[in-house]
Amino acid sequence: MEYFSGSKKLLLFILEDWKLLLFLTVLFGLYFYYTSTFDFFEKKGIPFKKPVIFLGNLGPRLRGTQSFHEFQLEAYKNFKGNRYGGLFEGRRPLLTIMDPELIKAITIRDFDHFTDRITLNAKEPKFWSRSLLNLKGAEWKGVRSTLTPVFSSSRLRNMLPLIKLCSTQMVDFLKQYDKKDVEMKKTIGHFTLEVIGACAFGIKCDALSDENAHFFNVAEKFDYMPLHKRLMLFFILIFVPQLIKILNFSFLNLTSAKELVRILKAAKAERKKSGIKKNDFLQILIDFSEKERSESEKTKSDIHLDDDTVDAQLLLFLIAGYETSSTLLSFAVHVLATKPELQTKLRAHVKEMTEGKELDYDCLAQLHYLEGFLLETLRMFPPLARVDRVCTKQYTIPGTSIKLNPGNVIAIPLYGIHMDPEYYPDPQEFKPERFMNEDKKDRASHLYLAFGAGPRNCIGLRFAMLSAKLAMVELIKNFKFSTCEKTVDPIQFDKRSLLLKAQGGLWVRIEKL
Known about the structure:
513 residues
């Protein structure tokens, strides 16, 4: 009798307080789900930073109190002395690699276990999902091997006249700012966009003749995202990443990207219609695509460069080239302005090496101090703070019994490595000599990661350095840069951006020589 009485009370409690019970059940379920991965590193015996439910270790980033570069540097210092350490992005474990030999293994020697990068996995338009940045596995390998000859020395030599013309236009463009204070990131972006437009699309962007040029205004907004969308994207990535596929979110400004693709398609159609051949990437990709299609019909092999894939590579080239090159050059100019003794030394070097000579491919290759200056700029101010890889087949970390499974994410904190005094003595000091002569030879190549490392490094690095060298030669020969009231030194990094940006911009004073 007492048994039935107790059951009746329990039933009444459930009926009367079902809302409370449901709430507690949901709360327990959420807690279990969002903490179920928090023992990932503990089980494997890997040192890790204690996570917070929902946020993992991303609290400083989400609160906007720490830039992404500072976040990576702090993580690196936290795990220094270990071969690796564990962080959490929300509930996702992120294995942070510290050991140089392990970095070499993952990016180069055992690359076949780590061929992919982190992607949103959204059903993005093909003009982005088909880019090298997002392709995976065999598809990435096929497109990458097909595109590699595009950046050969002979083809870069053929493009040099296009870059030289843009450099001359850049000098004329900057003369209007004589004895004025200028924000260099946006200003130098006019040059990098003109170069990309000429070399990738084969079109004149008017970025150096009209500050309000349509192409420039569209391109510079490629990563613009309203605050509400940015907050929503962060929320989804942290709490319910599965929704990415359903809601089809993108880090791109799709309105801007679609307009750029429209311009690209128009240029491509005009090129095919006119039959005119040019020395640019668009022409090379059109030729490669037609050749591959012809061979595919004969051998029944796969086609890697279909129209969507060609469009995707050109859009990636535009976006990546515009952003990274403008970052490199603007930070380089900031260094010139804040370190006048280096500016004097670099100007003397450039004049000595180019006086009375044609500024051709071979001449640029001899500018070793200038190259060291640019590489040192990228060491201290890399556009990206981290290199990531996704494990694609089971891997045992060398020298341990720790196994990584497909889907596990690896992070290499490149900014931490670049600022490590063990590899770069006095890392806060700007020293171009680090990348010259014996200093360069004595340091392992995989400890300099501005362009990544291994087979999945930046495919356009040679083009980027060529155009940056040419631009710097014209800048240093024609202008003097100095600090102004708005110059901030040392630079404060923007705490909201994923890519490297200076808080408040990079302001200098320009004077014609």
